[in-house]
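Pasting two entries for a bug report.
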Amino acid sequence: MQTRSRESKPDLARGCVALLLAGSVALLQGCDSTSAGSGSTDGSVAATGGSLAVTGGAPAVTGGALGPNGGTIATSGGTTGRIGGQPSTGGVSSTGGVSSTGGVSSTGGVSSAGGISSAGGVSKTGGISTAGGQPTTGGQSTAGGTGQAGAGAAGSGVAGQSGKGGSLSAGTPAGGTAGSGAAGGTAGSGAAGGTAGSGGSTTTLPTVRTITALDNGWLFYVGDPADAQSATFADTGWRTLNVPHDWSIEGATPPSNPFSSSAATTGRGGYAPSGIAWYRKHFTLPASGSGDKFYIEFDGVMANASFYVNGTLIGQHPYGYVSLRYDMTAAVTLGGKDNVVAVRSDTSVQPAERFYTGAGIYRHVRVIETNPVHVDQWATYIQTPAPTAASATVNVQTTVLNSGTTSQSVTVQGVVSNASGALGPVTTAAQTIAAGARANFTFSVPVSNPQLWDLEHPNMYQLVTSVRVGGATVDDDVQSFGIREIKFDTGMTLNGKSLKFQGVANHQDYHGLGMAPPKRAIQRRLAQLKALGVNAWRTAHDPPSPDFLDMTDRMGILVLDEFADTWTTTKYADKGDYSKYFDVAASTPTGMPPLPVVTGVSDATAVWYQVDFTGWIMRDRNHPSVALYSVGNEIGHGLSYRTPYLTKMIAMSHALDPSRSDTQALQSPASIGDYPGTETSDLLDVWGDNYDLATCLKAMVQVKTKSGLLTEFGTETSTWDSVTANPGLTGEFMWTGVDYLGEADKAWPSIGNTSGIMDELGGVKTLGYAWQTIWGAPKTTPPATGTTATQVVLTADHTAIVADWDDISFVQATIADAAGHVVTSSSAAITFAITGPGTIVAVDSASMTNETFRGKVRNAYQGIAYALVQATGPGTITVTASATGLTGSSATIQASAGSFVPCSGTCD
């Protein structure tokens, strides 16, 4: 079965490696016609004996890291991981390999000391390619749109498109031809036992489930043409692009200015465009997938989305901030035939929120291929209670779904690993699962001398949960996690040490990138805030992306994970906000897991908030950075109205994730009945209060943990003395850390709010430096200023990037004097140009005055503007900047093939 990381880009040619899994099936990972597709030249695979050596591969690269939903991210040039998935370079093994009973390999392990990858990583040839490639390629595929799988023969242990291989292939929008590799090939028997090797950043075990990125080569149209869901709809004239994509930030006709004083979004939505837009994606599936289940998973679509496969409606969902998974097995065709997924997003009902929300498929998309007997959606849950430096116990519970037609006897096996290797597998007792039924499994894994997760050392582990039927592994689920304990008991402790939230509350937009930031843009912002002493982020006021939580895990930043800004009524006249469907009966399929069994909540009677709440908790509960849940922000209903809802939410939260506490960002609690009464404090674990310090200090002693939190407060520094003076007060989240789009009603021509301690591009304001001092972060100072502009100085914050959507370089153009000091009074128009394998995806500045973010020209704000540059291939990119009457400048960026690998700890 061919596998790919979500972060890997199918349009990048990669090398070849085969894995021998469960002693029975040869799995080919991306052989192209120039690597080891034949199983006989450099990078070749042993045909028998269950072992595998990569003789032509590049050395392992330390630093292959965990992906947001579990899998690993490939390092540059290496083998891809995948979500739930395959290893990054240096991942699976060094000498000794990784195996269990009937396991991966005999002596010699999964790979030689050079790691698991050959030089190029994973090739799309013979399998996973998506239509379109880079947006400028017009839907071309490599190899003429033909898979061209290697011709490995059955039984040789090498198959060109082996097992359930090469999951997706598409060339032009009408499709390509899937490779014709042999179905399977028999691997060696694999030795029982085996030991974990020491190589790589995280030891990642081979996996069975196939997860394929579906980000590249979408076709896009603003409007609502009839029959656009049909498989035969004529879409050749539509624009080709990659997702994630926020069409609202660029408008319907970029690079023209999309903002309008008469926009239906009003200033609350940043005067940005809204409406209906369609996305269509052509892809093929191999005949070898017969009998498998096929799911499509979206990390987020804004909003009111309808999902079709080959003209069949497979699901609808109104809330744009949650992730969704739909079963498309009955709708797809196999054997290289063209399939079309069509997505209709609708943000017509406006205003939709008090702030900018974006529009379209603004997060990642993937296809999941599984055995009918498999781990259910987000079902694996990991707890690490009371860990110490000497020992910890990893407690796991998961649910296996049998979507087949016959009963199956099932066991579950778990393997925990980190950079030091993998622990021995733990296997549960067998359970018989009837067709169409589910069964719960639990097991525990002891860990000696664990590497604890904390803010200074965000150490990560990985759990591979394998489903076994008749001794064979048929599915697996990979989750990253951290071993740590956060407790609230008259204050907050992390691993037994007292800690305060030094927090900022932020919305999710990234200015010129809108709601669709590459991972590196998220990393950059977190690093900028961390440099000011920030250790916590409140996701105001909706669930964040999986990418964001992956970053906070890696970088050691705590998260107050928040559910919704409204419940059943609007805060203003925002006709399209969450209250429109909060308590409305959910349509099935919901795209979410089954609801927890708690009083008054069931799938049969589910309403949207219960569905969304369930999926939100289950998706996010394994992230060590998630410290606390907030069930809502400033919900203004009367106490008697709110209490039944709050009761259900807290019961659901505690059922789904008993390891975490819950709060609510209360507004004026002393005037709407929350205090001095006890209905609210009896339910909340931590008292949450917006802008009311006095009530918070009095009311927090009523909650069971005797802990309180200023869930929102202003940027003034005077409050911090009260936070430090009160042991039970766990910290504060100031409004706000970063300027943001929207919440600018009647403020035209301004399209955003500038209340942050930092602007949208990372410029630190006076209050930011003040907080840096208070929080004890290393002191920084503002740049020197000049008076007379003579030149444009161009500086790339990253001079080396990879040709991956998730990587980006922020190229700063500074209007400067002769000494290079910024002239803050200048608003000169700066014209950018680019040559080489790169593209300017946005032009930007910290200004909130309406101005297009697309094209090549941006007015400087306080003397600074930016070109945001991504690579379209390997080579040297040159960016130039000019302004009338000033000496121009240039900067170079070296691009290479590969996948973006986020950093860890204090970085960027």
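Entry 2 (this is the one that rendered wrong in the viewer):
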Amino acid sequence: MTRQAILGIWIIAMSGFALPATGASLEDEPSSVNFMQTDRDADRELEEVEALIAQEKWREVIDLCQKLLSEPARGVVKVRDGLYAGPRAVCESILEEAPDRVRQLYRTLFDREAEKLYRRAADDRDRQAAETLVRRFLHTSHGSPGLRLLASMRLQQGDAEAAVDLWLRWMERVDPDETPEEVRRAVAAQCAVAAARVGNAEAVDRAIDFFGPRGAAVRIGDREFARASELRTYTDGLTPLTLERPPASPADIDLVRWSETLPDRYTEHMPGFYARRMAGEHTRIGQLADGTLYLNTPDGPAAYDALTGRRVWARTDAPNYSSDWYRSINSSHFFATVDEPAPTGGGRRVYVSGGERLGAHDAATGRTLWEQNRTAFARLDRFGDEDLRVAFTSPVLPHGDLALVMVQTSRAQTLLAAFDRDRGGLRWHTVVGGSAPSSMYQTALPAGLIRVGSSVIFYNGMGVLGRCDAQTGDIRWLAPYRRERTMTEEWPRNPHQPRYAPLARVGGAVVAAPSDSAQLMAVRISDGKALWRQEWSEPSRFIGAAPPAEPGAPHRLFVADSEVRCLRADSGDVMWTWPLPEHESLGQGAVTEADLVIGTHKAVYVIDKAAGELREALPVRWFNEETVNVVADEDHIAAFSRNRVAVIGNTEQTMRAVDERLAAQPDEPWTLAARARILRITDQQERALQAFERATAAARRGLDTAELGQRIQRERLALQDALIRTEWSSGNRVEAFERLARLLHDAHAVPYACKLRPRGARPDRDAAPHRLATATADRLSGELAGVGDTDLTFIRAGERWRFDLPGVRHVALSDEAEVGRKSRPAERAVTLVNGDRISYRSLSMDEGTVRVDTGHGVLTYELDQVAFIGLGGEAGPAQEKTVYFTLADGDEISGVVESFDGETFVVEVPFSGTHRIPADDVSSIANRRHAPPAGPVGRPSVPARRPESTLW
């Protein structure tokens, strides 16, 4: 009997319902797996078992198999080309297929030891004893009762999915006709109800079939079932309570609630070439839960209120990357997974992984519950190498009392590791593949995990897809897949940017798109057999799976590249396509209850997943050219890029949630600000202004909300600015200026400039040959007409302006660069065109002749010989209610506005008296000295410091 034939019987013992196979099998494809941890001793012993079976030396076969079942797994053995399995899986298959007399001999040898374990497990409720019984003595008389006992323990701990898996294994092992009816029907009914609760429809069908059409009544809770139809009706009415509950999509997504800049110090400490390469592809995948957004970044995890953007907590004391770039496995993939409370109690937890740090935090406070980093992991006894570099490359998968994650090490190994959910101690680890060792820099490849009953299916990002027992780490099977060519080259010319993709379970198969492969594949859960695959001709994203749109229809899969495609889950055939706009950088999307949400660097697209029609397209231009990943729940959509996060929601939903929160906390500034933003987005601008003022006042009263107050003030200025410019352009200039004047003279106003029209070109030299600068920093273009003992005459736009000499800084009569470099505006000196500089005591000018009294005599020059006249004026005292004008021709003037009739400003200008300035000549009005605004046209001038959070 060959090992391949031996393994065939094992398929019966495993749960799963196969899909029809189409296309070539993966094991027929060439594999680029360069490294596989194989158990050479077990391989030799299994070869010996094959020889002993041929000779029918069954006692020796039993001894060798039991030895392998009792020993910890050290690796895998090759079953056939393209398929590997753990030694225990092979031995279980051998014993299952053995003749009846051999199984009777096995029971005679080991029943007594198995009975001790069963009694200890049953009497003391010792789960470890039950697990040992199932793992080592499944084929004894107590193996099947042990499966039932372990299933009940799992169910009591809240792990219904593992219980269903164990019950299904028990049903496969027993003969219904030889099993007491009460036991058979009780187990089947429990399994059907639990399977309905976890959303496993195939398991419900199998359990009801095992229950039988009618017989002895079974009581579950307060219900009693005697007929299969009664059990079916009850299970059909149950609501699935799986942790991965499909969320409902927000309808009519039209509001960007808030956005925030994320730190990016990870790439700052890397060499330039690698920083650019790593920045090209990243993973920031967080999770929404109970109105809070959790995410992980290179600088640590954080939590935000999804409604308002308020930071609930952040842990930046322990970054996720090494400060020594050369002693780390470089990773730009960071995950956050929200978990239900652990079986042992406590609140909800958020697990963070990515880079060289793994940890669990209290979801409400951010308190660190436990943590593993590169140093701690390397010092474990089983590694003992303090120089070992590691990267945690997958999201954390909670499974019972364990937290599982994939680990990539500098020994060119990829490990699947299980940590205690309560304390963070390493419970077990197993090598699940790797690559050829290299002394060069190592880059982490994202990996994926999915729970299937009591097992875990994974891809390791190194060319291997596999399944293992979640409690023990025993490998059930490993199947190499064909890697992308660039991932196998030592120095790839076009390096592949690894992309994280989720795993999806569809019936008895798992669909995967590993980060190092250019294909979508479906593999059978029971034995790793490839059912079909789809090749990708361009970098693509596997988004996820969805149940049938109508009864009898197939499950659907969603893939996106230059277009979004919906595929049949049973064959991979295309059902519909929707083209994405060209030249958009595609990120990871989300499958919701009704829609498919796709993120790019330009927009978030919401597509009806049944019809393939676009429902919403929301621009998100704050992401520049970066990849955008999306997560969603029933109220929010969160979009992540490498350096920004934003939350989007429906206006009506958001207003309802805001009003509910304000009813409980009327003066909460974050919620008041959120309400103001909704009013603004819904064109209720005056009410929005009042809400912003109220939010600003509330923020100023709090000691920890001062920065929020500044942020709200800037948003208020932006809204005022938009209203002013709208009124100005529509002809309501007096009303616009009255609103503007109140804003300019606000005691709390920040530096601000309102753009009323584009600035025009500089005046022609012939029309305005001279430039005058005042002591108050005003600048005017025109013509110098005369200089007297106490004042100066300057002609601007045909109007004569008279300035007191102490209020004039300088007058420039030439644009020559050399003259500009030699000029010293603060000096009382005349600079000639040839560069000479002449200091003077007094200066006068008449009919184009400049007379300079040096104290030693009077020098006379023609005006065209003079390049620069420095007058050394000093600024006078600041005036109240001063307004700063920038004119269309580039002039800048400040003064106090005495009146405005909609067409002309009457302004009292320092040192030159009252002047009339046409409104059409005004480009901008500000409350600060003339300077280019820090923000874009139409936005308030803000400090250069980057704000913590701003509304787009």
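Dev reply: Rendering is fixed now. As a check, the viewer should reflect this: The first strand starts at residue 77 and ends at 80.
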